[in-house]
Amino acid sequence: MVDAVVRSHTPATSKHTPAGGAPTAPHSADEAQAVEASEPRIDLVTVNDLLLGTWAATRREARELIKDPLFWRVDGLPMAEHRERALAAMHVLVENNGSRRAFPEKFGGLNDNGSNIAGFEELVLADPSIQIKSGVQWGLFGSAIYQLGTEAHHDAWLPDVISLALPGAFAMTEIGHGSDVAAIGTTATYDPDTDEFVIHTPFRAATKEYLGNAGLHGRAATVFAQLITGGVNYGVHCFFVPIRDAAGADLPGITTEDDGVKGGLNGIDNGRITFDQVRIPRTNLLNRYGNVAADGSYSSDIPSPGRRFFTMLGALVQGRVSLDGAATTASALALKIAVTYANQRRQFDSGAGTPEVVLLDYAKHQRRLLPRLAQTYAQAFAHDELLRSFDGVFGGRTDTPAERENLETLAAALKPLSTWHALDTIQECREACGGSGFMAENRLVGLHHDLDIYVTFEGDNNVLLQLVGKRLLSDYAKQFKGKDAAALARFAVGQTAGKVFHGAGLRQLGQNVGDLGRTARSVERGLRADQQHELLAGRVQQMVADIAVRLRPASKLSPVEAAAVFNENQSELIEAARAHAELLQWESFTDAIAKVGDEGTLRVLTWLRDLFGLWLIEKHLAWHLIHGRLSAQRGAAVSSYIDRLCARLRPHAQDLVDAWGFAPEHVRAPIASGAEQERQDAARAYYAALATSGQAPVSEKAVKKH
Amino acid sequence: MVDAVVRSHTPATSKHTPAGGAPTAPHSADEAQAVEASEPRIDLVTVNDLLLGTWAATRREARELIKDPLFWRVDGLPMAEHRERALAAMHVLVENNGSRRAFPEKFGGLNDNGSNIAGFEELVLADPSIQIKSGVQWGLFGSAIYQLGTEAHHDAWLPDVISLALPGAFAMTEIGHGSDVAAIGTTATYDPDTDEFVIHTPFRAATKEYLGNAGLHGRAATVFAQLITGGVNYGVHCFFVPIRDAAGADLPGITTEDDGVKGGLNGIDNGRITFDQVRIPRTNLLNRYGNVAADGSYSSDIPSPGRRFFTMLGALVQGRVSLDGAATTASALALKIAVTYANQRRQFDSGAGTPEVVLLDYAKHQRRLLPRLAQTYAQAFAHDELLRSFDGVFGGRTDTPAERENLETLAAALKPLSTWHALDTIQECREACGGSGFMAENRLVGLHHDLDIYVTFEGDNNVLLQLVGKRLLSDYAKQFKGKDAAALARFAVGQTAGKVFHGAGLRQLGQNVGDLGRTARSVERGLRADQQHELLAGRVQQMVADIAVRLRPASKLSPVEAAAVFNENQSELIEAARAHAELLQWESFTDAIAKVGDEGTLRVLTWLRDLFGLWLIEKHLAWHLIHGRLSAQRGAAVSSYIDRLCARLRPHAQDLVDAWGFAPEHVRAPIASGAEQERQDAARAYYAALATSGQAPVSEKAVKKH
């Protein structure tokens, strides 16, 4: 039981209490390998600090607060009660200064954007409904007032927004227009006779839809509408519109409807709002980026309507940023539950007369959980980078148009991958826990229900990736202004990604990746870090170049034909964007490792990074083979490298999920509480006692042999 | 609008009413292609008959019954009310003879096994809780009495089982043992002094768990326990044990607990049962396969304990069979909703000045939905084959040990693929419908919640595939008794799958596939049917042969080492089983096409089959490349073949989902009701009227040009 001895060593310096009971003694199918792999250990404190990232202090503060059960999701609670519970929890957040971090000192805030997002993300551990309802109130409704409005708006409304005296809805999406915000139908027509805007829903498809706080609690809404003055449509702008009176009744001209039961997040009162010629003061236009004077004349500091529109939307990027972080934390929680259970639950003996095998000793079970754990680590590191970019731009330190654009592209790249990963990981964990995983008390199904919508809200994932793809194409095209298709194709061949994308403002591919040499020794007979990087980066570059070549003729076609050519390449453009995001995650992981001093931590995290890299390469193995990046022989070996890494990492799996530092109040799932270990121990004790009692029945087979 | 004209042609002979409103006029991004592809049309009646299969009459009867809203799932219903509603619906089923089809004429039944399963499967359209609670009562609890008991048991209990006067639980799974039934801990010890069995739960892990009807409604249970008599354990047998009195209180020695809220299926009262020395008459042993006489002596017609155990389990295969069918029907329903919506919802204009594009005209959207539709078709045909096999065995016409084993292997192969496909398809449809897809009223989230557990109950999918893999290996090994590894490897190379598996009892690979020549012309420049078949079948054969070679040395190793070698190959063995199941589905699809006389139907379904085949090949493209089955050049073309097929099938998508024949009472989702089309039409009418009124605001850009 060498392995058990190693496992019971918990660093004395650990500052987190491992949830899920005492460290377990995994029974390894390959003892020799486990012993070999167990020599290094991660330092839990070091890794916990790495995972919690730049705003670790805020995350720990938020985690302390949500140890209070009033924040916890109650399964099976009727919708109406869940909504009231979520609202009540938000009031407690306010009392604990959880709502003001992003706002100016003037309003009691900290003006600390990164910390604000970090704090909200942790709420996903308590109840995703609270996370998202908070996001609606302070991240969308409040941010619209703060980011799109000016001082008078801030003074008038922000104090009540922060204190939750004024709950509000963020009315952008319409029944007929989700991702395509520019095409919304709601109109805001200026009437100079009364100095008012008239907000109107001209047809049913223009009804505002799916708005949190619109179903019940909201008193006002930030409404996106086509601004029309003097017979000219100046495009989408945002307006502050009261919707309910103090008693909760719809104001004149306002019709709200309740969306009713949803697939999850039922603590949020989503609903619809229809406007029938609703008049609001002219000054309710949130006029930071565009204003209408009393005489109806329009002015803006941003002359280009397109750039103005995207500037306004970009001011609200924090929704995407926070979903990336919350999805990553939720994935880690699911893995904490499934790995803990898999280290305690036994099923089938191996046919070798040994005790029943714990689930995580099955190679397939390792394959199901460990690569997903590797990606979750990569996401945590990539997210911290995203959050630092966000904090730089919104804190004003790096607030340039180029940095804003980079931030938006990075958010659009990372949010799709992490939110899809959350659903995939939570589902795999659910299945890996069998029937237990389907019980609401074990959290996994609730997490899946609640996070389901993350993949299509705050930007549909496919639409976001398409945006990223277009950005990659346009960066690429900038290199070849005026060159013809053949020259472009010739150029693409053999270029490093870093050169092609140089100056593109995105992470400079092929650069800034920490110390590849130092970690390169990790996989014997495998693909070294530099080889992983070359494959991942080369794929992005080649895919973009290939699509650019195929789209090149479109410039000479009619608009209809050009649209058809683009449509033919849509799937691949989305794949290229995904490849780009994967590369960014891999690079973030590699950079994070470069900071590690502790030798055991470095070694284990390097294996985990290698597992992530090889998993990505395996996912796209056909591409690498077709494009001659890997020979058939080396391609065939990728899967066995992954199996090898899984076996190596298997003894570290519990450490790697414990390092997230979730307390029992965050985990809560009975199957990860140690109860399964107690049951297994009781069963083994029963059989041991029976055997020594001499009362044990003999087997039929044994009788027949006589 | 040639396309619209074609679309409005609905065959006059159609016997089903298309749900989801009138046929729509899709706007194709490539009109020429749509016109070309629209020339053939499927005949809806023909395809509906094909899809409903051998027991179409029963399916239509069941669908008529569940048009009554009392059967419909009500979203957000509190658990307690949902449970009562499901029970009430089952009483209505009884009144309409929905519970007796499988049982003997003696009890008012039809002794019609295939029809029975077909009828239950359709209930998934109403409320999966009703489907599964019915399955527990009549398919598990009732079947255990019928299949494992003898005449006295039938006479005593079946009438009340059928009438629902005696609701019961099927107590096999324990907290500590799910898939590994042989290792359950519950004991049934014979006491000759009182002529009773003593049923006992010796430790917490042996508590019966997740049992439908155990939480609340069940009055008795069929309990699986280790049969011990005369100091010998004869292995797992099944016993009839009363658990509650007429007032619903636990009987002495019985402790039931409620599982509470689950991820779905909350209309079922799952729960736990613990037995504390519960005494039942000796004759409550369901003794068809093993009996204990009054003196305690054990007898069985099946001398081998192992074969006896598997015979008893095999008698209950119908659960897996019915999940395969229900999962397929649920997938079809999800696609009906998503395709209908995608033909009506518009998002973004193409940049070509044309109207906004309907979702299904986006290449990526086609890629998301159409291959899944193709697989759903394949599953329907494969399921009918499975159901015929089941009906043959259980109806006694083909009830041989070999046929039983084949049936069990076929069920174990198909159920994992179709239940995973259901989750994947429902989720993709949910996302493809955006925010609407997350609203409970649109059905998709509820279907996902309810079907989630299908992938791990009635046999965990990975465990089932592993069983199939072992069967493939043992069939393979039979060919090479006594040959050494090298001979085996030499033999494997170049053999056709049909020869390798000849006599294996599974579907004879490479044989019985209908008329490949006739359908081979389908894909110009693509992979013909015979090429698809060769790739799919060759992959199964090669994978099994490779694993066999790698496992060969295990016979010379110690049990512990041999277990380690097997574990190293576990993932790949599961993959081989999946490849086998995929091949079976492809062959079933091809066989189904061979029966089609109508030329348009033949052509469109052949494209759909090709799409399925190519999708499978694309999924495993790296394997085909590594093993030299496809050149890099041909491999690279697979994706573009798929794109081409998607574009061809796009104008037929509505027909292909309408052909399932779901009535509005089965679909129920507002987004597939035509409401979206009405909203879109109203929006376009508004803009058209505005344009002609002369009141339309001009755009800012237009003003600036002046």
Features:
Butyryl-CoA Dehydrogenase, subunit A, domain 3, 28 helices, alpha+beta, Butyryl-Coa Dehydrogenase, subunit A, domain 1, 706 residues, 8% strand, six-stranded mixed beta sheet, Butyryl-CoA Dehydrogenase, subunit A, domain 2, homodimer
Tell me about this structure:
The structure is a homodimer of 706-residue chains. Chain A is α+β, with helices and mostly antiparallel strands and 706 residues long. Chain A has helices spanning 2-8, 31-38, 44-52, 56-65, 79-95, 113-122, 128-148, 151-163, 305-314, 318-342, 363-394, 401-432, 434-438, 444-451, 461-478, 485-492, 497-500, 516-519, 529-551, 559-568, 570-594, 599-619, 621-626, 632-649, 653-658, 664-667, 675-693, 700-705, and strands at 168-171, 187-191, 196-200, 208-211, 220-229, 232-242, 254-258, 271-275, 278-281, 291-292, 298-299, 698-699. Among the domains of chain A are: 53-163, Orthogonal Bundle (Butyryl-Coa Dehydrogenase, subunit A, domain 1); 170-308, Butyryl-CoA Dehydrogenase, subunit A, domain 2; 500-652, Up-down Bundle (Butyryl-CoA Dehydrogenase, subunit A, domain 3). Helices cover 54% and strands 8% of the residues of chain A. In chain A, the strands form three sheets. In chain A, strands 1, 2, 3, 5, 6 and 9 form a six-stranded mixed β-sheet that branches. In chain A, strand 2 (187-191) and strand 3 form a beta hairpin. The first copy, chain A, is globular and about 105 Å long. Chains A and B meet through strand 6, helix 11, helix 12, helix 13 and helix 14 of A and strand 6, helix 11, helix 12, helix 13 and helix 14 of B. Chains A, B: Residues 169-278 form the Acyl-CoA oxidase/dehydrogenase middle domain. Chains A, B: Keywords: FAD, Flavoprotein, Oxidoreductase.
